Amino acid sequence: MLLALMVPLALFFAVAALNPDVASYFAAMEVRRKIIGAFRFGPIDAGALILAALSVWESLRTARKFIAGRAVWIEGAALRFHPTIRRRPLPLEEVSGITQKDGHFETHVVIAHGAGRRLTVPMVDHDSARAFVAEAESARARLTFG
Known about the structure:
CATH architecture of the largest domain: Roll
Order of helices and strands: HHHEEHEEEEEEH
CATH class of the largest domain: Mainly Beta
Radius of gyration: 22 Å
Largest sheet: 3 strands, antiparallel
Number of helices: 5
Helix content: 40-55%
Distance between the termini: 43 Å
Oligomer: single chain
Number of domains: 2
Structural class: alpha+beta
């Protein structure tokens, strides 16, 4: 759903960045013209171009995460994370607890590690999160009790 919103916004910002008529239409007030003018370099609106680039970047990250299907998994004696989370593998010995946090629209996996630090893995499937928490707790118990 987020992707369906971000792609049209990215296209709009790209058009606004390259077409001065679109930017001037939305800059009806004098204050807005001064703010928008500060980001304009010739015919290109740098502010809108940056917003378009950020929207495309986040859309690609979201799409990549949905295509891969797994945000976090157990491999050997460590937790491995999807590249979009940008975390190194976390040894199971350092993990003090793994829980599932259900929100109104999304589910998160919360991993407690280190000296009270927490890592939240956002936007995971509810059933997959429940199964992962059970699997991770089982792996931690095997590692602790043999």
